[in-house]
# Entry
Amino acid sequence: MPPRRTRIRRNASWFRWATLGWLLLALAMLPLLLAVVFRWAPVPATPLMAQRLLQGYGYHKDWVPLTAISPHLRHAVVAAEDNLFCQHNGFDWKQLNKAIDQWQEGNSSKGGSTISMQTAKNLYLLPVRAVWRKALEMPLTLLLESLWPKHRILEVYLNIAEWGPGVYGAQAAAQHHFGTSARNLSPQQAARLAAILPLPLQWSAARPGPYVQARARHIQTRVRQLGPTYLACTKTPNTKH
# Structure
C-alpha cells in the first residue's frame, strides 16, 4: 500500500479537481437558471447597471409589463434596432456578416446585433468590445430564443436598456426625458427614445440635436413599414396594437 502521506496528497488532489469540476458545472448552469427565472420574474439589475453604479451614475429603473409600454415605443425600437426581429431565430446573418467584414477590414463594426443578442448581452455580460464577448453572445442568444417567446425578449429588452445616465428601462426613460409614463408616450417621443439607444449617455431625447431629430423621423418612416408578422409575434394577452 502507498504511504499514508502519498494517499493524503492524492485525496487532496482529487478533492481539488472535484471542487473545480463542480464550480465549472455551476457556472455553466447559471445562465440556464437565470433564463428560467427571468422567463417570468422581473430582472432587478444587470452587469452594466453595476458597472455604471461604480462609475458614479445613479439607478433609476421601474419594471413595467409589455402591456404598460406604449405600442409606439415598441414599434419604434424594433424599427430602429431590428426590423427583422420576428423573422429570425436570434441572428440577422446578413447584417452580422457585414459587421464581421468591417471588423476584419479594421473598421469599427456597426450593426449586426439583433434585439435578442442585445438582450443576452445586457442580461449576462459587461459592455466590453472584445471578440470573446461576441463569442459568448451567440450561445446566450440561442438560450433565450429557445426558452423565451419573442414578446418576452422584447419586454425584457425594453426594461433593461440604458436610456441615459443611470436611466434604465422604458418607464424610467419616459419619466426622465418627457415627464410622462411609458404607457403615454407619443409617436414622436417614442421615435426619439429609439433614436438615442446607440449612444444614450451622449444623446438626449428631450433636447435632440439635428442628427437625433433626423434619425427619429427616419424611424417613424420605418415603423410604418412593419408588417403583420411583427404585430403577431410581439402580441401578448390583452395587448392592443
Q: What stands out?
A: DSSP finds eleven helices and three strands in the chain. The chain has a mean pLDDT of 86. Residues 4-37 form the longest helix (34 residues). The radius of gyration is 21 Å.
